[in-house]
Amino acid sequence: MRKVYRLQAIGGSYYIALPKEWLKRFGLGKGSHVEVVVEDDGTLRIKPIEIQEEVQEELSKIEVEVQERETLFSLLITLYLRGYDIISLRFKGSAIASTIRDAVNRAKNILLGFEIVDEDSFSIVLQVLSSSDTEIHTLIKNMCRIARSMYLDSIVALIERDAEKAYSVEARDQDLNRLYFYITRVIRKKVISGIVEPKELLKLVDLRMAVKAVEEIGDDAKRVAKIVQEVILNDIEIDINNIERLKMYVDELDEIYRNTMNKIEKVVPLPELLESLYRCEKIRTELSNFRKDLVEKDPKALTLLSEVIYSYEDIATHVYDIISLIYSSI
């Protein structure tokens, strides 16, 4: 809401009243501390240094009367991502309790820190048991490590025809998704807090897009793992020379990805950024040409391998996007 305030003069100083709604929102009063920042364009920005825990808790609670059981799962994910810490579900009749609990358990399986803290015949109370001070970059690095292990183990499983390794990649995707949802929640809570500086806000938006790209890398790696399972189950023979060639491209891409992971919090010189982008695009193009050559030689026999290569093309595209977003502070 935009308002015009008149300056008041007392002695040799000038004063201005702060909006009551703003003071109430952050639990501020006489003696509270605020930070005053003068921007380069002359804008004066005021933000609270300490926010009362009672206010934070009040803002993060919501009570829901469950009417449509079919949409409850999606609703829980939405409320989690919007930053609510305590979600109270109310319903009438114990007959629908089991259906509601099934939806709650499904949500718990993919949402990090989401637990039932209270329950009776007509209600379930859920709470996100986590710290508000969670370091985003640490979480992102953890997510990047899981995604990396997935695409590396997928190609190794193909070379070694190791079904167990392929199954483990598929299982890891759930852990990756849980981190993705949690990081998205942490970022959104920071954005809607109203106290994030403009530069940090832009960085948070970039990081939100970057973690989505990492999550998609996991999806592509999972797709490869499923193909590997099919190859092993049906005893399909694939030329080891073609697999080794693919492994060479994956190793080159992995070098770029690891370098990117190690510089998430750093400012990278423009020449280095451009070099990483160039190398990533070069690998993607080489993978694409490799796939097309194989399909032309034997379209039917090489269908599964071409799908694997296509998935790694997608991974190269996602790595390219991550480089662009994480290094955008240069």
UniProtKB/TrEMBL annotation:
Gene3D superfamilies: 2.10.260.10, Phosphate transport system protein phou homolog 2, domain 2 (1.20.58.220)
Domain SpoVT-AbrB: start-end pairs: 8-54
GO molecular function: DNA binding
Pfam family, one: PhoU
SMART domains per the UniProt record, alphabetical: SpoVT_AbrB (SM00966)
GO-annotated biological processes: intracellular phosphate ion homeostasis; negative regulation of phosphate metabolic process
Name of the protein described by the UniProt record: Phosphate uptake regulator PhoU
The species this protein was found in: Ignisphaera aggregans
